[in-house]
Amino acid sequence: MAITDYAIPASRLHRAFRDQGIDAVTTVPDLIQFALHDALKRDEGVKYIECAAENQALTTAMGLYVGGMSPMVMMQNQGLLNCLNTLRSVGIDAQIPLVLCVGAFGREFANLGQPLADSSRACVSLVEPVMAAMELPFFHLETEADLPKLEDAFDTAKTKQRAAIVHLGFYPSWT
Amino acid sequence: MSIHTLEACFVISKMRRDNTIIVHTMSAMPLISALTPSPLNIASVPLMGGASGIGLGLAIAQPDRKVVVLDGDASLLMELGGMAQIGDQAPANLIHIVFNNGTQFQGIANLDRPGGANFDFCAVAKASGYATTNRFTSVPELVAGGPDLIGSAGPHFVELEVSAAPKFTRESPQPEMPAMQFGRMGAEARAMMEALGVSK
User: What is the pTM of this model?
Assistant: First the structure.
């Protein structure tokens, strides 16, 4: 496969998240997700909130959710590892079913199409096992064919009443 | 001069209107819950630093209600960047009150918090873009200045100079953390959603 085959069009991701009823985004912007950030920020139907740190992205999303909105949270893998305790409190103890879209910052191109566990970069290889240790559902999107997993992520979060992770393995394309 | 936490919570409970949401944490938590119980209360627990973010989200989602955040000083320091977020979003219905007692684990161990007595929370709030900042050091000041904030457009920031409670001693040992502490925030979130008419 060509490298570009791993780039899911941002427009498809944008539509898929909107189809899940998303009307707000809280985020610490992610190097991987620039095209998706751009699409969501330009969407007038989405309240887009830039946060100083990932903990605040989670707590602000919780407030939006309790207040009746349908937020998603965007961050990169380093940010996810930065906010594990808040994720525990909000997404497990408080049972707030937030969906986090997390980009695989630092993933080497040689790992594309291979298991994340085989990445030589700890910020890539450790994310899935850490989420497994926290018993948080994890949905990895490697190519466009994986997009149906996004709906599964929202359904699982709602059913299990806990946070779920949508993991983007590569840069979405600007289309 | 300073304010006792109980006095501060009592005055704030009297400032509250029927539709006011209160997000609370740290030293204000047990007192505000007892003085003004309501399904529109939610405790950020166990989640030090989370109150201002939860309050910001609620203020955006519920623009017709006042949202009062009762924060701790060490708790706010932990997520100080959240003040820039509040300044960015500028929710007019948000009042962010920090109980500044200069300690961490006040009433338990009274450890010093970073920044010391000279850390200027109001200066940070002003630089972040809050509409107003006030520092109250006595009950009369809070009684005189607090209620107007409920009726006017914010976001408002209030620093209360609060006295720290005596710490635990050998004769008054630290209690066990109850299981309820871990399920409380979620239970209160669900109660608040029901009170707000939010269905998911």
Answer: 0.95
